[in-house]
């Protein structure tokens, strides 16, 4: 029971980390895109 809970918590943490990095990556792309459009 505890092991299963730990595994689900661990996978949840990995999922959050993945989503966070994904959002950060998309955010960087948006910033560059806006900057390039503004610059040109």
Discrete helix count: 1
- The share of residues in helices is over 70%
β-strand amount: under 5%
Number of strands: 0
Integer count of domains = 1
Report what the structure shows:
- There is one protein chain.
- By secondary structure, this protein is mainly α.
- It has one domain (1-40).
- It has one helix at 2-39.
- The chain is rod-shaped, with a radius of gyration of 17 Å.
- The model has no long low-confidence stretch (mean pLDDT 79).
- This is Lipoprotein.
- It comes from Melanothamnus harveyi.
Keywords:
40 residues; mainly alpha; 95% helix; rod-shaped; Lipoprotein; plastid; chloroplast
What would a concise description of this structure say?
By secondary structure, the chain is mostly helical. The protein has one helix and no strands.
Please render the helix and strand layout as text:
Elements: H1 2-39
């Amino acid at each position: 029971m505890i092991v299963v809970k730990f595994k689900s918590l661990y996978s949840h943490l990995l999922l959050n980390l993945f989503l966070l990095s994904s959002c950060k990556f998309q955010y960087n792309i948006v910033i560059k895109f806006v900057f390039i459009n503004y610059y040109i």
